[in-house]
Specification:
By secondary structure, the chain is of the alpha+beta class. Helices cover 73% and strands 8% of the residues. It has four helices and five strands. α1 packs antiparallel against α2. About 4% of the residues have low confidence.
Length: 339
């Protein structure tokens, strides 16, 4: 019984030891499972934290990129605004410079116009003085010629009276023949006196014409410096070609008044101007030099043409042009065809 009791006690100890070992093993398994669960939870939490950190980093990176883009856009906008502002300033500077240049040119043009007007006025005054001097000289010459003609006429009257008295003393039959002869002699003497006076007058006119030609040439040179004209090439005289003189009789009007449209034909042009006032001033100057001219317009052209001659035929017009080119005042005259 003692042995049995001892064996039972031993078996109970063994059973208690087994239970304890089982409990310890269960406790260890439970701890291991708990540790594994905690480890898994930690790993999940770590993974969640890592994922959150990556998302946060992605957000930060996106924010940085967006900030960089905004900064670049602002920089670009600022550069564009600066460039536009600079371009506007440059454009304004160009406009201001152009306006200043235009104003300076306008002032220069006005000064040049005033100087030109002063020159023209001085030339007109000088021409008027010359014309007055020429008229005075012509009047004196005419008075001298008239006195000479009166003296010749008085002598002729005295001679005729003597001849008539002598004829009266002749026979009645010879009276009519003597009177006729006396009349013929009187006419011949008058003609001789007239020819002598005409010869003297022609000599005086030739001298005056030479002086006037020199004056005209000087006036033309002065006018060429003052007035910008459209000029044609002067026609050179051919040595073997005889050019018939052109009589400068007054031109019959081919239109109602100066400034009207020219009819079809060929015109010898001596001057062109942009305004009627300039053309009239030049016409007046030529008139003082005893040139008869007219002012006309060509259809479709606003230029005022001054012409001294014209013809319906081209060949005849060219002959007239060559004849006028021999005049020192019209060496640069040219031919204009009007359809």
């Amino acid at each position: 019984a003692a042995q049995k009791e001892a064996a039972q006690k031993e078996a109970a100890k063994i059973e208690a030891a087994k239970k304890e070992a089982a409990q310890q093993e269960a406790t260890q398994q439970e701890a291991a499972q708990k540790e594994a669960a905690e480890k898994e939870a930690a790993e999940k939490e770590a993974a969640a934290q890592k994922e959150a950190a990556q998302k946060e980093a992605a957000k930060i990176e996106a924010a940085k990129k967006e900030a960089a883009q905004q900064e670049a856009a602002q920089k670009e906008a600022a550069q564009k605004e600066a460039a536009e502002k600079e371009a506007a300033q440059n454009e304004a500077a160009k406009i201001e410079a152009a306006e200043q240049e235009a104003a300076q040119k306008e002032v220069a043009r006005q000064e040049a116009a005033q100087q030109e007007a002063a020159k023209i006025e001085a030339a007109q005054k000088e021409a008027a003085q010359r014309e007055a001097a020429q008229q005075e000289a012509a009047q004196k010459e005419a008075a001298q010629k008239e006195a000479a003609e009166q003296e010749v006429a008085q002598k002729e009257v005295a001679r005729q009276e003597a001849a008539q008295q002598e004829a009266a003393q002749k026979e009645a039959a010879e009276k009519e023949a003597a009177q006729r002869e006396s009349a013929q002699q009187e006419a011949a003497q008058k003609e001789a006196a007239r020819q002598e006076v005409a010869q003297k007058e022609a000599t005086a006119q030739q001298e005056a014409a030479q002086k006037e030609a020199a004056q005209k040439e000087a006036a033309q040179k002065e006018a060429e410096q003052k007035v910008a004209q459209q000029e044609g090439e002067p026609v050179k005289e051919k040595p073997n070609e005889k050019i018939a003189p052109v009589e400068l009789d007054p031109i019959k009007p081919r239109f109602a008044k100066d400034g009207s449209e020219m009819k079809a034909g060929y015109y010898v042009i001596v001057g062109t101007y942009t305004t009627m006032a300039q053309a009239e001033a030049e016409k007046a100057r030529l008139s003082k030099l005893e040139y008869y001219t007219a002012i006309g317009l060509k259809k479709g052209d606003n230029t005022f043409y001054i012409f001294v001659d014209y013809d319906d035929l081209n060949d005849d017009a060219r002959k007239r042009l060559r004849a006028h080119n021999l005049d020192p005042n019209f060496r640069k005259a040219y031919l204009l065809e009007v359809d």
